Amino acid sequence: xxxxxxxxxxxxxxxxxLHEAIKLYEKNIYGYIELYVVPNTLEYLEKWQDLxxxxxxxxxxxxxxxxxxKKEKQENNRKIFEEVKKYADALDAQYIVIHGGMDGxxxxxxxxxxxxxESRALIENKPFVALPNRIGGEYCRGYNxxxxxxxxxxxxxxxxxxxxxAICAANSLNQDPYEYIEEFLKLNPQMFHLTDIEDITSIYDxxxxxxxxxxxxxxxxxxxxxxxxITVETIKNSKTDLDDFINDFEVLKRIAxxxxxx
Length: 262
Prior knowledge:
This protein is α/β, with parallel strands linked by helices. It has a single domain (about 5-260), classed as TIM Barrel (Alpha-Beta Barrel), CATH 3.20.20. It has 9 helices and 8 strands. The chain has helices at about 15-25, 45-50, 75-90, 105-115, 145-155, 165-170, 175-185, 215-220, 245-260; strands at about 5-10, 30-35, 55-60, 95-100, 120-125, 160, 190-195, 230. The chain has an 8-stranded parallel barrel with strand order 1-2-3-4-5-6-7-8, surrounded by 5 helices. Helix 4 (about 105-115) runs parallel beside helix 5 (about 145-155) and helix 6 (about 165-170) packs across helix 7.
């Protein structure tokens, strides 16, 4: 399989998941960790530094108070991002994935993203409608191609394409989800997020394991360049191991092998 798979963890996952992550990396199950930085967790940084594993950093989103779409949040956003940058610098992260924020407007997102002055920044596309009562807002910024392009053009940042989010947004806009993804691909994303989807017609995001939903994974993989970075963002069933991630990897490997043999 010619893809570079990433394991999604949080900065506070320094107990069982950290040790399990080491084991899976040594077995070449994945190639990097995408680490979501929970605010005020610098005390955990040293443990992640000890891993000697490649990292991508995920900036906190609005559920943790980081919301680029609202001007009144600018100072708070700056303070949170200072810690994110410390993680990225210490772990020599290639990218920092950032959400566009909730409600507000995309122009404000673009302005604040520019003010962060971060060459490693990638804006991630979002669904149009947020999960109810989950992330502190109703509508997501960066849900369509025009909004993502506004952020990219203004802030000169890169792009992380989340396939599940794109499908949710396409359903909100009554567009074909796979054609919508192909339009997003014209923005030349630097990396990707992948989960399965419980209901391919839903406007709400979900993160089931690969092969357990309705996503045509083979069709998606055919769109992704060889050696692309793909963070698998499926749910974790256990608090003590990451065996479910191994199963996701095996599903991807089987589907990718089938594609290459066609």
